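Supplementary Methods. Inverse-folding protocol.

Structures were first reduced to a discrete structure-token string of length 209. This string, shown here, constituted the complete conditioning input.
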């Protein structure tokens, strides 16, 4: 059986949400204007994120990476990776943020992660240009579509927010933190609640028995 783990980055692997914090710091005017539009659903995530990201000067890119690098990872992450390796279960990260931000935080673990899916950023123009091979519908990074490309028999999703909702709905087993838990309850999709990756490991251990 082909079993795989698909994990969100922001607010899931990291304790804090790093992407919105980055937008507020590096594109303050665009963020002040566009974020409320996204929250009130007048603008899609896809349109809004593009607008904010493409307002950031390319000269800020290396500062963005250094701003993200020291962000704390939730406890138990290494232990979960160890456990998945023992069980030969591949671990894949799917993020709606910048690839460079994800790679900066996960640098010590890159050789243990099968793939990172995220936005690619081009810095050759005055302002950032974003590229995402899986842009569709209202999303810049369509997580469920990416998961589907792996053709796994059993998919295990780990996430924390509404941007993980499609991924969670399509997964065989879901580990959810709030506010994702709320959306799943509304849809009556079963999930396992978790606080840190030690809990994910413990619950996964008993699930696999
Ligand atoms: Mg998240």
């Amino acid at each position: 059986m082909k079993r795989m783990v698909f994990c969100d980055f922001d607010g899931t692997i990291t304790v804090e949400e790093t992407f919105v914090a980055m937008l507020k710091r590096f594109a303050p005017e665009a963020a002040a204007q566009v974020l409320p539009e996204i929250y009130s659903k007048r603008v899609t995530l896809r349109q809004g994120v593009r607008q904010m990201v493409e307002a950031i000067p390319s000269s800020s890119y290396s500062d963005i990476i250094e701003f993200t690098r020291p962000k704390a990872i939730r406890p138990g992450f290494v232990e979960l990776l160890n456990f998945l390796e023992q069980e030969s279960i591949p671990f894949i990260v799917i993020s709606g943020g910048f690839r460079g931000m994800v790679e900066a935080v996960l640098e010590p673990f890159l050789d243990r992660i099968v793939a990172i899916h995220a936005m690619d950023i081009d810095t050759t123009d005055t302002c950032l240009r974003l590229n995402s091979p899986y842009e569709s519908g209202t999303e810049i990074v369509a997580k469920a579509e990416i998961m589907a490309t792996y053709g796994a028999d059993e998919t295990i999703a780990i996430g924390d927010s509404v941007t993980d909702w499609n991924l969670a709905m399509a997964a065989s087993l879901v580990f959810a933190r709030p506010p994702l838990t709320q959306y799943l309850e509304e849809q009556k999709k079963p999930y396992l609640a978790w606080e840190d990756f030690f809990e994910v490991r413990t619950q996964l251990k008993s699930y696999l028995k």
